[in-house]
Specification:
Beta-lactamase; 5-stranded antiparallel sheet
Length: 449
């Protein structure tokens, strides 16, 4: 009898134990992190996270490409669903106002939450072309000196370079001549500059010398992929793939790629914000997302969340790259733009950094002006990419657009989240001659690129 009781009690003990074990297994299955740092797939009513993002991208892509944010989408296997977006109303309106105020020939601004990948603002502007496609998704813009972030990250993370390391170079600061960058001579005209100052001031020849002396082509190619060049970005909206053409041999062409002195390395504004986000987010690169929530018949079937792609660089390396990016706004190419913001006591606890880039492009044709950067007050971390393309005359620097976005985001007072009622009944938010990111009243129509 005693033995029988013991067996019976053991069974009752094993039942809840098994339930607990099963629950734990399910939790860790859905939240486990693989060897490369990426989170394993969670299942939703739309499938796994990547499947859901792909389905949303297929449904939303054609609409977003035409600057529409529909309140409803027709999603494969789910039919008509209701959609809520991640846009922050204050930051979205600010990005639209800035582009309409300065009216560049072409302009785009993307701001995201660097700790989650959530899109906070996404605006596109083409002067005189209210039906132009969404520039934030296009990867036809030369990456220019923004690519120095990749080169610096490679040198720090793979080769152990330090921001204080000195580089010797000959020639001008912003040119890149073969005779100078390939020369190993040190003479009375040779100059010496630290890596962080070369980055902040965007010295092309110094970065060329750094590449030849320190990096292998395979290194630069690998880190380009880590930062999502030449790779599909698993966003919940469709965007063009950024391209990095890295020569297989050391030489002048490699120095051009590493310093951003060519038209072959191209990227989108969304990707630019991702890169800056990885640096302020301790080297972790996240896929962006625009869909906050999907519901059907008032039941939530999908919620947007962080999607970890992996570590582009280590946390320690990210700290070093941030040191370089901070120099850009303190003493480098953006010092004049950020001087007042940095001196303003209301923003003294906000850490900021960035990188500028300039190069002439062909699609669209004109002078490209980039600013890619981040800002953090310790509680929140945001990343931004701003680009303007000017055909003849400049109307605003992209760094100035970013500075005004940072100022608005971190100013005292609450920010407001975009709500469905904020979108006009006509389906679009249209001001002036630029059709900025907007809602689309028509729903239920499935289309493709």
């Amino acid at each position: 009898m005693i033995q029988g009781r013991i067996k019976l009690n053991t069974k009752w003990i094993l039942v809840p134990t098994a339930i607990i074990a099963l629950s734990a297994w399910l939790f860790f299955r859905d939240n486990a992190v693989s060897a490369d740092g990426t989170t394993q797939e969670k299942r939703t009513a739309l499938g796994t996270t990547s499947e859901a993002r792909k389905a949303l991208a297929d449904a939303l892509g054609p609409q977003l490409w035409n600057n529409h944010l529909p309140k409803q989408l027709t999603v494969a296997d789910k039919g008509l669903v209701d959609v809520k977006y991640t846009l922050d109303r204050t930051m979205q309106e600010q990005s639209e106002k800035l582009l309409l105020r300065y009216k560049p020939d072409y302009g785009a601004i993307v701001m995201l939450d660097a700790t989650t990948g959530k899109i906070l603002a996404m605006s596109s502007y083409v002067k005189g072309q209210p039906t132009a496609a969404n520039l934030t998704l296009r990867a036809s813009f030369p990456a220019a000196s923004i690519f120095k972030i990749i080169t610096a990250s490679t040198a720090v993370d793979r080769k152990g370079a330090d921001p204080k390391d000195m580089i010797s170079y000959n020639g001008g600061n912003y040119t890149l001549y073969k005779k100078n960058v390939l020369s190993e001579k040190v003479n009375r005209w040779t100059r010496f500059i630290s890596l962080k100052d070369a980055f902040a001031r965007s010295i092309n020849t110094a970065f060329g010398r750094l590449t030849l002396e320190t990096l292998d082509p395979q290194d630069l190619s690998e880190y380009s992929r880590r930062f999502m060049f030449n790779k599909y970005i698993p966003a919940d909206f469709a965007l063009e793939q950024s391209v990095a053409q890295i020569p297989e041999e050391k030489g002048f062409e490699l120095t051009q790629a590493a310093s951003g002195y060519n038209r072959f390395n191209t990227m989108s504004p969304v990707h630019g914000a991702m890169i800056a986000g990885a640096i302020i987010n301790d080297g972790k690169i996240l896929a962006p997302y625009l869909v906050e929530e999907v519901s059907k018949d008032q039941e939530i079937i999908y919620k947007g969340a962080e999607y970890d792609i992996g570590q582009a660089i280590t946390k320690e390396s990210a700290v070093k790259v941030r040191e370089m990016m901070e120099q850009t706004v303190l003493k480098g190419t953006s010092r004049k733009t950020f001087r007042k913001l940095i001196a303003d006591k209301k923003f003294r606890d906000v850490e900021m950094g960035g990188k500028t880039g300039h190069f002439s492009g062909l699609n669209p044709k004109g002078n490209n002006d980039w600013f890619v950067g981040y800002a953090s007050d310790g509680d929140t971390k945001v990343a931004i990419a701003a680009i303007t393309v000017n055909v003849q005359k400049w109307t605003v620097k992209s760094s100035a657009l970013a500075e005004m976005m940072f100022r608005e985001h971190f100013r005292p007072g609450p920010t407001l989240k975009a709500k469905p009622e904020d979108f006009k009944s006509s389906g679009r938010l249209v001001r002036g001659s630029g059709r900025i990111l907007a809602a689309h009243a028509k729903s239920g129509k499935t289309s493709r690129f």
